[in-house]
Design brief:
The chain starts with a helix and ends in a 7-residue tail after the last strand. The radius of gyration is 16 Å and the shape is globular. By secondary structure, it is mainly beta. It has one domain (5-141). The chain has helices at 5-11, 22-29, and strands spanning 33-37, 44-45, 60-64, 67-76, 90-97, 101-107, 120-127, 133-139. The strands form 2 sheets. A 5-stranded antiparallel beta sheet has the order 6-5-4-7-8. Strands 2-1-3 form a 3-stranded antiparallel beta sheet, covered by helices on one side. The chain is built from 2 helices and 8 strands; from the N terminus they run ααββββββββ. The structure holds zinc ion. Zinc ion (ZN) binds next to loops.
């Protein structure tokens, strides 16, 4: 089990961002997990895009509850490069997030052998610095509720 996620994220390559995804990153900084939904056709989408993937319309930003379930995952037990090798073993998962989008993230503060598909998880925000906050996923029975 590992717990120094903010230090680890600080050592990792920083995520790319642009004028569209900056809204997502700003949301994380403010404690919101933002996604896009289309007011015309109700398509929910993630990652952030300039247009709706359903109809080509103009998507708007909304805030998720941050509840999700593990869709699938892998356990990284070996890694040859710093800083990744310092955090092994760790879980990289695809999370199905309410109300219906999927995103990748780490499942944290759990024995990697206890992670299962369909496990309920709750987003938490790991503040790295003023510019970067990373969403991570904690099994819901261990989630810190706010
Ligand atoms: Zn649409």
């Amino acid at each position: 089990m590992t717990s120094n996620w903010n230090e680890w994220y600080a050592e990792r390559p920083r995520p790319e961002r642009d004028h569209i995804s900056q809204v997502f990153w700003d949301g994380l900084r403010d404690g919101e997990l933002r996604y896009q939904a289309c007011p015309e056709c109700s398509t929910v989408q993630f990652y952030p895009r300039a247009i709706c993937t359903g109809c080509g319309g103009d998507p708007e930003w909304r805030s998720s509850t941050g509840h999700g379930t593990v869709h699938t995952f892998t356990v990284v037990r070996q890694h040859g490069s710093a800083p990744f090798k310092s955090q092994t073993p760790y879980v990289v998962a695809m999370i199905d997030v309410e109300p219906g989008f999927r995103m990748m993230g780490n499942v944290v503060d759990v024995d990697v052998d206890d992670v299962v598909i369909d496990m309920p998880v709750q987003v938490e925000f790991v503040r790295v610095d003023d510019e970067l906050t990373i969403p991570v996923w904690r099994p819901i029975d261990r989630a810190i509720r706010s």
